[in-house]
Amino acid sequence: MNKILSFLTPYWNLLRSRSRVPTGIIAAFFFFAGMTYMIAFNWTMKVTNTEQFCIGCHEMKDNVYPAYTRSIHYSNRSGVRASCSDCHVPHEWTDKIVRKIQASKEVWGKITGIIRYT
Question: Are residues 11 and 52 in the same domain?
């Protein structure tokens, strides 16, 4: 415990000082940390909405994917392809976040063996 306190003491003293530099450093750190978080969050949302991600996580490669590739959703006259996320992920931001949280529970169930796809 003393090692932790001795490690944190200089930083605590820096924060308690009257200088505005520590406050500016802290504000800059949180700004860049927030920007990094938002970029990583949006990238994760984009990656988890791809067809490759769905096929890999839901073991669709052998079950559903072959039927999908023969359907009109995959190939049609207009050339527009419907991906999994077009129908299975809500388009509104808050609803999408709720669905992603639910899906993370399903992924955890798959990893731990509680959910088994046959």
Answer: no
Give the list of residues 6+ apart from residue 84 with CB closer than 8 angstroms, or none.
Answer: 51, 54
Tell me, yes or no, whether 110 and 53 share the same domain.
yes
Q: Domain of 4?
A: 1-40
59-110 pLDDT tens trace: 677 888 888 889 999 888 898 988 888 888 898 989 989 988 888 888 888 7
The DSSP letter of residue 79 is -
Whole-number Å distance between alpha carbons of 41 and 37: 6
Q: Which residues 6+ apart lie within 8 Å of 89 measured at CB?
A: 49, 96, 99, 100
Q: pTM here?
A: 0.61
